[in-house]
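Input.
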Amino acid sequence: MKIAIIGAGAIGSAIARKLARNGIQAVIANSRGPQSLKALTDELGPSIKAVTVKEAAQADVVFVAVIWDRLPSALKDLGSWNGRILVDANNAVEVPSFQAVDLGGRASSEVVAEWAPGARVVKAFNHLEARVLDEDPQVESGRRVLFLAGEDVDAKNTVSDLIARMGFAPVDLGGLNESRLMQFPGGPLAILNLVKFD
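Output.
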């Protein structure tokens, strides 16, 4: 299974670090091109390689972590996703004000699904702050919780397995409509740093 990350900001880099620390190979891309990611890939070692956005989008599982107002342009020229998994790690907020974007009552992942035709969208990795996501997921004999939501059961199982391999405790909230529970701002589960004791 090929894994990629589109977006190398705080969240994308935190995801890359978690993959690298757990020996999971992946590629990462941003709008500025592979050369701009040399410092990050040097830090992370040989398991994370820099590629173009179009190359990253061809992976089986693609984490997308891009500032909301840049998200449509990041996804627009990638064509049909043909059933590949898009892990939506974004929040519909204006930067730098952190005000919620008006989506007409829709969950942000439902909008992302429209921008990525053919993708099996799973919402995950968006409800924790980047600095918390970057910390050790093993906490007080438990595992830090990561919520996920999506319509496709097989896609959610794949993402849930990845979450567990990265050391977190996956908690499935349901479909994309339920993903609004973890949306920031406004979702009751946003920013909640929970630990599951096994």
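Helices lie at 10-21, 38-44, 53-56, 71-75, 108-115, 130-133, 153-165.
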